[in-house]
Design goal:
With 589 residues, this protein is an alpha/beta fold. It has helices at residues 45-68, 78-88, 91-104, 108-124, 129-150, 173-177, 197-205, 216-219, 241-263, 289-294, 307-310, 318-332, 367-373, 375-388, 404-424, 441-445, 447-450, 461-469, 487-503, 520-525, 538-547, 550-560, 566-575, and strands spanning 8-11, 13-16, 19-26, 164-168, 184-189, 209-211, 225-229, 234-237, 269-270, 276-283, 300-304, 336-340, 393-398, 433-438, 456-459, 506-509, 530-533. It folds into three domains: 13-25 and 159-240, Glucose Oxidase, domain 1 (3-Layer(bba) Sandwich); 42-150, Enzyme I, Chain A, domain 2 (Orthogonal Bundle); 262-577, Phosphoenolpyruvate-binding domains (TIM Barrel, Alpha-Beta Barrel), CATH 3.20.20.60. It is built from 23 helices and 17 strands. The strands form two sheets. An eight-stranded mixed beta sheet has the order 1-8-7-3-4-5-6-2. Strand 13 (393-398), helix 15 (404-424) and strand 14 (433-438) form a beta-alpha-beta unit. It is globular. Bound molecules: phosphoenolpyruvate (PEP) and magnesium ion (MG). Phosphoenolpyruvate (PEP) binds next to strand 11 and helix 18. Its cofactor is Mg(2+). Residues 11-134 form the Phosphotransferase system enzyme I N-terminal domain. It is found in: Cytoplasm.
C-alpha cells in the first residue's frame, strides 16, 4: 500500500549540512522547564544553598567525566566544554543564584531560573551572533544544574541502542560530544542556531542537523519517521512514500558529491584555463585552524581577534594574546595568517569597555577608532602581534579604516610597539605585510591614496554592504534589502581591484560572500587575488572554481557591471551557465 503521509514540513536553521532519514527519538527533559517558586523559611536557607551547591557539584562532576572520556577527534573542542565548566562557578550564575536564595528567601530552582534569564537577556540584546551563541551556553549550563536540582534524568545518549534521529529541546555541546555515530543519524532541536557550539561540534562530526525549530519537540512523537535536511534547514515529519524516495535520492547524490569534493579539497582552485585563486579560511578561535587545514585552506585570510576579548570580563593580557597568536602562526606555517587587529563595538560591544554606550554603534567608536582612542589597549595587542610574528608567516590588518590618517597613526603605533620591545630586549619581528580592511565607502573612494601605505586590501563585504546601502546588517526588518550583489557594492569591489592592480596591492575578499559557491563566477571574473571564507565552505568553493573558466567569468563580470539593479544582477546570474556537475548543487559541505 502506498503511504500518503502528511509531509509536514518545518523550517529551521541549518546546524550542520547533510541529509538523514530515520525514526525519531525524543530526548526528554521534563522538569527543567516547569519550575515553581516557593519561599524558604530563614532556618532552611542554609540547607537550600547547600542543595544548590550539591547540584552544581554534581553537574561539574558529570561534565568533567565527559571531558575525560572525550574521543580523540573532538579534542580540539575541549575548550568549549571547559568554558562550560568555568560557567558553573561564574559570578553571574553561581554567585547571584546564592545571593537570590539568601536575599529573597526563595527556592534554589527559582533563584537559578531568575539569574539565568537575567544573564540570557543581557547577552540577547547584543546583535552579534557569536554572543547570542553564548546565550545557549548559559541555558545549557543552567539546564544541567536544574536537572540535578529537580532530580530529572540527564540525557543519556550513550544508552540509545538503535539508529535514531534525536529530537530535543536543546543539546549541549557535552551531549553532542557523547553521541555515538553508529547510533545517531542526526538531530533536530527547538533551540540553537548556526553559531552555537552544538552546531560547531555537529559539523565536526558531520552529523546532519536542523536547529532553532521552535517547538519541534511538541510536534514529533517517538518512532515517527522524519527527514532531516541540514542543507536546507528543513525537517519533514511523516513523509509520504514519494517524498521518502525523493529524499533517498537527494541523500545519495549529496553524499556521493561530498565524498568526491572532500577527496579533492587539497587540489588547488585552478580554473579550466589555468588561473589559480588562493583560497583561505576565516577563524575566530585558534581551534578552528584544524578545520581550515582539513578543508584544504591555504592559510588564514582573516583571524577575527576580538573573540578573545568578547569571551571574558576584562581585557586580555599581552601574554595571553601572544600565546594564542603564536600558536596560530606556528600551526598554519608555512601558510600565512592575517591577524586583524581588534574590531570591537558596533555589533560586537564589549561589556567591560565603558565606551560602548552609544546611540548608533555601527557608526560609532568601533574597531580602529576605538583602538586609536585607547592606545593602552591597542599597544598591548600590537606588542603581542609583533612578538608572535617571529614564529611564522604573519600579515597584519587594520579594520574599519575610513581614511589615510588612521593607517598612518596605526602604523606609527606599531613602530612604537616595536621600539619598546627592542629597548626591552624582547624578541619580535617587523618583517610582515600590512593591510587594511576595505569596508567603509570612504576608504574605497580613497583607495588610490591608501594603496601607497599598504601591501594588501581585504574587502569586508559584510560591512561594505551595510555602509554602502545604509542597511544595518543585524536588523531583521531590513534583511530582505541586504545583498552584497547590489550593483553599487559590485562597483566598489571592482574599483578596489582596479586600484590594487594599478598599484601592485593584492586584493582579497573576506566577507561572507566569499563563502558562496554560486558567487564564484562573479569574484573570479572581477579578478580578486584571494578569498577567505568559512572553513566548511572551502571544498565546495574550490570545486566550483575548478569548474569555471577565467575568461568566461571575466566576460560575465563585465556584463554584470552594466546592471542597474539587483533584479538585473539576478537575471544576468541566472543566465550564466554553471559547469554541469555543480548544477543545482551549491549547498554547503
Ligand atoms: C566584513 O565586514 O565583511 C568582515 C569580514 O568583517 P566582520 O564580519 O568581522 O565585520
Ligand atoms: Mg567588518
Amino acid at each position: 500500500m502506498v503511504n500518503q503521509g502528511s509531509d509536514t514540513l518545518l523550517k529551521g536553521i541549518s546546524g550542520s549540512p547533510g541529509i538523514c532519514i530515520g525514526q525519531a527519538y525524543l530526548v526528554d527533559r521534563e522538569g527543567v522547564d516547569v519550575v515553581e517558586k516557593y519561599n524558604v523559611l530563614p532556618e532552611g536557607i542554609r540547607d537550600e544553598v547547600n542543595r544548590f551547591k550539591t547540584a552544581v557539584k554534581k553537574s561539574e562532576d558529570e561534565l568533567t567525566e565527559v571531558i575525560e572520556e572525550l574521543p580523540e577527534e573532538l579534542h580540539h573542542h575541549l575548550s568549549i566544554l571547559e568554558s562550560h565548566l568555568a560557567l558553573f562557578k561564574d559570578k553571574m550564575l553561581y554567585g547571584r543564584a546564592i545571593e537570590a536564595i539568601e536575599g529573597e528567601r526563595i527556592n534554589a530552582e527559582w533563584a537559578l531560573k531568575k539569574v539565568a534569564s537575567r544573564a540570557k537577556a543581557m547577552f540577547q540584546d547584543i546583535a552579534d551572533p557569536y554572543l547570542q551563541g553564548r546565550v545557549d551556553d548559559i541555558v545549557q549550563v543552567s539546564d544541567r544544574i536544574m536537572m540535578n536540582l529537580v532530580g530529572a534524568d540527564a540525557v543519556n545518549i550513550g544508552n540509545i541502542d538503535k539508529r535514531v534521529v534525536l529530537v530535543a529541546k536543546d543539546l549541549t555541546p557535552a551531549d553532542t560530544a557523547r553521541i555515538q555515530l553508529e547510533r545517531i543519524k542526526g538531530f533536530v532541536t527547538d533551540r540553537g542556531g548556526k553559531t552555537s557550539h552544538t552546531s560547531i561540534i555537529a559539523r565536526t562530526l558531520e552529523l546532519p542537523s536542523v536547529m532553532g525549530l521552535g517547538n519541534v519537540t511538541a510536534l514529533i512523537k517517538n518512532d515517527d519517521i522524519i527527514i532531516v535536511d541540514g542543507n536546507e534547514g528543513v525537517v519533514i515529519i511523516d513523509p509520504s512514500d514519494e517524498t521518502l524516495l525523493e529524499y533517498e535520492e537527494k541523500k545519495a547524490r549529496y553524499e556521493a558529491r561530498r565524498a568526491n569534493i572532500k577527496r579533492r579539497s587539497k587540489i588547488p582552485a585552478t580554473t579550466v584555463d589555468g588561473v589559480t585563486m588562493k583560497l583561505m579560511g576565516n577563524i575566530e578561535l585558534a581551534e578552528e585552524i584544524v578545520s581550515v587545514m582539513d578543508y584544504g585552506g591555504e592559510g588564514i585570510g582573516l583571524f577575527r581577534t576580538e573573540f578573545q576579548y568578547l569571551s571574558r570580563s576584562h581585557f586580555p593580557t599581552e601574554e595571553e594574546l601572544y600565546e594564542q597568536y603564536r600558536e596560530v602562526t606556528e600551526l598554519i606555517f608555512p601558510e600565512p595568517v592575517v591577524i586583524r587587529t581588534l574590531d570591537i563595538n558596533g555589533d560586537k560591544a564589549l561589556i567591560y569597555a565603558k565606551e560602548n554606550d552609544e546611540e548608533n554603534p555601527a557608526l560609532g567608536l568601533r574597531a580602529i577608532r576605538f583602538c586609536l582612542q585607547r592606545p593602552d589597549v591597542f599597544m598591548t595587542q600590537l606588542r603581542a602581534i609583533l612578538r608572535a610574528a617571529a614564529f611564522g608567516n604573519m600579515r597584519v590588518m587594520f579594520p574599519m579604516i575610513s581614511g589615510v590618517e588612521e593607517v598612518l597613526e596605526a602604523k606609527a603605533l606599531l613602530k612604537e610597539a616595536a621600539a619598546q620591545l627592542e629597548a626591552e630586549g624582547v624578541p619580535y619581528s617587523e618583517n610582515f605585510e600590512i593591510g587594511i580592511m576595505m569596508e567603509v565607502p570612504s576608504a574605497v573612494v580613497m583607495a588610490d591614496r591608501l594603496a601607497r601605505e599598504v601591501d594588501f586590501f581585504s574587502i569586508g563585504t559584510n560591512d561594505l554592504t551595510q555602509y554602502t546601502l545604509a542597511i544595518d546588517r543585524g536588523n531583521r526588518k531590513v534583511a530582505h534589502l541586504y545583498n552584497s550583489l547590489h550593483p553599487a557594492v559590485l562597483r566598489m569591489i571592482k574599483h578596489v581591484v582596479d586600484v590594487g592592480k594599478a598599484n601592485d596591492v593584492r586584493v582579497c575578499i573576506c566577507g561572507e560572500m566569499a563563502s558562496e559557491p554560486a558567487i564564484m563566477p562573479v569574484l573570479l571574473g572581477l579578478e580578486l587575488d584571494e578569498l577567505s571564507m568559512t572553513p566548511q565552505s572551502l571544498p565546495a568553493v574550490k570545486e566550483m572554481v575548478r569548474g569555471l573558466s577565467f575568461s568566461e567569468s571575466r566576460k560575465f563580470a563585465e556584463k554584470l557591471m552594466e546592471a542597474t539593479s539587483l533584479d538585473e544582477v539576478a537575471a544576468i546570474m541566472d543566465d550564466f551557465v554553471y559547469p554541469e556537475e555543480n548544477e543545482n548543487e551549491t549547498v554547503p559541505l
